[in-house]
Design goal:
Layout lengths: L4 H8 L2 H34 L1 H4 L2 E3 L2 E2 H41 L16
Helix pairs in contact: 2-4
């Protein structure tokens, strides 16, 4: 039976979900900023440093061509690294949360006050 909306909200408020969200964001945001800076550098150099980008390195291969190829290499590198990061740091937490969500309500006893009432 699918979990109720209340159960989803309970999981969303949990410490485990907050930790999962923190781990994801602590990887995604810096990596995105770094890639945008790297890409912007390539674009700006191509537009304003044409002499530098035209420097021939080997034969007809110039700096611009090398930087362009490195854009693809860095994209695939980021994707590869993210898949490893997710498998090690994110997936175990996400799987545990999913299992908890699918298994139904928590089996932990409710906290009680010294007089026997619920906290």
């Amino acid at each position: 039976m699918p979990a109720s909306a209340e159960r989803y909200l309970e999981v969303q408020r949990s410490e485990e979900f907050a930790q999962l969200r923190h781990r994801l964001r602590s990887y995604i945001f810096p990596t995105t900023v770094a890639f945008i800076v790297w890409y912007s550098l390539y674009v700006l150099l191509s537009a304003y440093a044409r002499d530098f980008m035209a420097i021939k390195v080997i034969g007809n291969i110039n700096v611009a061509l090398i930087f362009g190829v490195l854009q693809f290499v860095s994209t695939f590198g980021i994707a590869w690294h993210y898949s490893r990061y997710a498998a090690q740091k994110l997936d175990p937490l996400a799987d545990a949360l999913y299992k908890e969500l699918e298994d139904g309500p928590s089996t932990e006893p409710a906290a009680t006050t010294p007089d026997g009432g619920k906290a």
